[in-house]
Structure formats: structure tokens, C-alpha cells
acetate--CoA ligase (Brevibacillus centrosporus), 346 residues
Amino acid sequence: MHDAMIHQKLAGQWVYDLQEGDIYWCTADPGWVTGTSGGVLSPWLNGVTVVVRGGRFHANEWYATLEKYGVTVWFSAPTAFRLLMAKGERQPLQTYNISKLRHVLSAGEPLNPEVIRWGMETLQVRIHDNWWMTETGSSICANFRCNPLRPGSMGKPLPGITLAIVDDEGNELPPNRLGNLAIKPKWPAMVRTIWNQPQKYEKYFLNGWFVTGDSAYKDADGYFWFEGRVDDVINTSGERVGPFEVESKLVEHPAVAEAGVIGVPDPLRGEVIKAFISLRAGYEESDALKEEIKQFVKTRLAAHAAPRLIEVRQTLPKTNSGKIMRRVLKAWELGLPTGDLSTMEE
């Protein structure tokens, strides 16, 4: 725990850019690692004031919280930002004084480039993505304020962290090759064991690497790019497609508020891409709109990445921390048990 606090304090300085006098608000539930490590421990270890607000998401109440407490650093999730996007492009600056806000962060799932553009236009602040997981205890990879921001990227590793892309044998891969996101062990906040399951803990390790279960690649400049959980990657007609890249392109369409993408078994192609979407206000479901959205992805991303199937839903299943639950979408689609739903948003 004390080693982890060293990591959490430094993450507060390097990633959250916490400074004396800051008013910090992390919207994550304190029952989750982001809410405890990122929402409580990091700010307290850096001596800044923490805003705590309960209740469900409500756009106007969130903007009012930013204004009322003069929040300077704000940490939330991509789903929350997408919901704010769906409420109107210019509303916050027209209605609320959030001028004290100087730094905005996101974690929990990949941050779509469209959300970053919305942040610049609407909040007049860049939204900085950072990557970590429960097992890492704190931020591992981030878009630092001192580095150029590359929309859609996880950023670069924190100082002292060795991050790499490895193949299924644990061999490091060259730039721009999709593989397993892996970390050199013994960073300060590293998980030490799994309660009563030592064999499961050992499965994280491969050829001297801690393998996260995420699929990603590293570009030639050392920026890392998340593609999805390894189990989520879709194999269609011999091509590997990360659901995140398709979801990111879908939400760029003006009609799409949220998107979740899965692979559906197909006898000819192995899998075909199916997209579940919710629509923004002012749009209605139609075959013509679905076809327009398919063509939008086909022309702006790639033909093999365009969804062959689109289903419109009022809302998509999400965890309490805001992640879209692709496994639930897949279970619904295939008629399989959904498994544990204790983390699903009510």
C-alpha cells in the first residue's frame, strides 16, 4: 500500500498536473479503482481539495458542479463526455461559468478523437486520456500536458515504467504491429497477488512481462494506441479489427451518440461486425440512416471495418464507471448467459 502511494502521488503530479490551490473532481464511484486511487488518494497525497458528488449522471447538474465549486482539474470517463456531447455543443459556455477549468482527464475506456475535438470546441480545454487498470494501481500510460496530444492515443508511459507490445510468446514487437500490451513488473503500485488464486495471478506473466489482456500497438514516436481487449478483437475475412476504431468512427457521425461494436459468427467471413448504437436527439431510426452510417465508416475508415449490421437501442449497457459492456451486447446477440451484472449501471 505504501509503495502504491508513491506511484499515486507521482501520477497526481505528472498526469493530473495537480498544483497547490487546485479544486479537483473525479466523477468515478469510490467503489472502483479510479474513484479510490485517482479520485481520493492521488489528490490527497498532493494536498488538493476534492469535490465529491453523488447521484446519477445529469448534464446540467454536472456543469453546475463545475461552476459552483470552481473546479480546476476534472477527471471523468469517455461515456460521460459523449453523453454531454449529446446534450448540445455549446451549452456549457453559454449557461455556466467554468472558466477556472484548466485540465481535463479521461480513463476507463479509450477516448474517441471526436470527444477530444468536442472538448476543445465546447470546454475550450483539451481532454487528456490516460491508461491503467485495477491491477496496475495507478496511471501507467498518459497524454502528458507537456507532450503534443495525439487524439485517440493512450499517450506514453510514465517515467520509470517500461511498456511494450509483445506477441503471444512474450517477444517484443516492432512499431505499428498489433499485439499484447505488456508492462515490465515491479512498478510501485503493482498488484502483488490475487486473493486465494495464486495460479490465476501467475497467468499474467509471460517471458518476463506482465501481460494486461489489452490489444494495442506502439507507433514510431513511442505513442501507444489501444485497440480493445484481446477477446474483443474481431476477425473478419482475414482482417483483425479493433472495436474501438470502429466505435470511434461511428460516433463521428452526427446521428450517433454512443456505439458498441462486437463480432458476430459468420460461416463465410468468420465474423461480421455488428454495431449497437444510440441516436442523438432529433434523429429517428430508419434503414436509410443505417445505410448512411455504414457508408460513413466505409469511406472514412475502411471497407472491411464497416459494420454489416446495425441495431439501434435507446441506451447501451454500461458499467458503473461508464464502460460500454461489449460482453453483454454479445450475450444478448447470441442468446448466451450475460454473467455477472453486479457492475452494470442501473
